[in-house]
């Protein structure tokens, strides 16, 4: 358990006066605010309406906003480094304590516990927390610390390209980023023999993987990408070491909305590649994360939230999901020249077109980070550089495009079409994605090439 006291010149801080807090190891921090006005919430909360509007509960003055922001930032950093389903925090202010349970859907906050007058409730919480197992405290039981032998195997494994080698080395031995081993289920494995080739002229030897032996496990270190947001999908991407096949792969860990009309990304990739769609990644394993029971790891906070004011619907639960793909490519921003940039975008648009025509799937998020540059060897021994269209987690089947699955827009703001920005409830169409590709090309040219 970790206690942090804020400095006198700030209403709230998660950094100790004497030492910097570790984000890689805390189990349940206790945070003590120094000033009386720095709490993010009002002293009293109506207990007869558990779904009351958060506006009635949260304070709006500057110090309170700063406190809430710092608390959220701290939790976000913990969730970036640790593999968690949820996270407990005890917030202490002037003899009162609040217990906060965070997950990817938000936070559940208790009414104040006046431990100065009666400390029994706080003692009971601490006792109950001490009696919890690791999963009940919020640790993901499918993740354990990697052994020294597994870390050495990841370090010595041959990399498919220089970029993967550079980021693999950068993921190992970074302060504050322990090396973990992730275990997936055998039923999550995808038989590559069922998939169509990623390109017509690819060397068949590049499409073959060794038979699987044992349980699929993957070693990961520092994330290549990790979302800064505490709430939402919480996407984290890793250059991972696949233990059974002794190779590097790309692992994506995120929380998907529990909506029937949006497939998990791995299911989308499998459907695309079995339908003959090219220039999209090869799925190796994909599935929701289970803690041992029959129910996947799911957020809880949304069950206590009031309905969305705009749609009148309940907030959607988030389900923990993992995806492993074979290809490790370079970011689009790492292109060598304008020809390679335009070529990568061209192949991504080919994938987009095939997905719509062959599988009736629309990507809905054409953006800089969702196209990568990838090289492969042809049957003639030549090396070709193409683009792959990745991140299909927002994709939808054509038959569901008319329905609003959840509040908000789908896409990356700088590259969204003008009509989607102006009319948020507009149906997402093929033309919107094509316009996003034009915005992306223009944006990349402005960023990397001389212009007037």
What's a concise summary of this model?
With 452 residues, this protein is α+β, with helices and mostly antiparallel strands. It has helices at 62-81, 120-131, 134-137, 148-156, 162-171, 265-274, 338-359, 418-422, 430-448, and strands at 2-5, 29-32, 87-93, 96-103, 106-109, 113-114, 143-145, 180-183, 217-220, 225-226, 236-242, 247-257, 283-288, 318-325, 330-331, 361-362, 371-377, 383-389, 396-397.
CATH class of the largest domain: Mainly Alpha
Order of helices and strands: EEHEEEEHHEHHEEEEEHEEEHEEEEHH
Instruction: Label the structural class.
Output: alpha+beta
Biggest sheet, in brief? Answer: 8 strands, antiparallel
Distance between the termini: 57 Å
Question: Can you tell me the CATH architecture of the largest domain?
Answer: Orthogonal Bundle
Write the layout of secondary structure elements.
Blueprint: E1 2-5, E2 29-32, H1 62-81, E3 87-93, E4 96-103, E5 106-109, E6 113-114, H2 120-131, H3 134-137, E7 143-145, H4 148-156, H5 162-171, E8 180-183, E9 217-220, E10 225-226, E11 236-242, E12 247-257, H6 265-274, E13 283-288, E14 318-325, E15 330-331, H7 338-359, E16 361-362, E17 371-377, E18 383-389, E19 396-397, H8 418-422, H9 430-448
Parallel strand pairs: 1-2, 2-3
Antiparallel strand pairs: 3-4, 4-5, 4-6, 7-8, 8-9, 9-11, 10-11, 11-12, 12-14, 13-14, 15-17, 16-19, 17-18
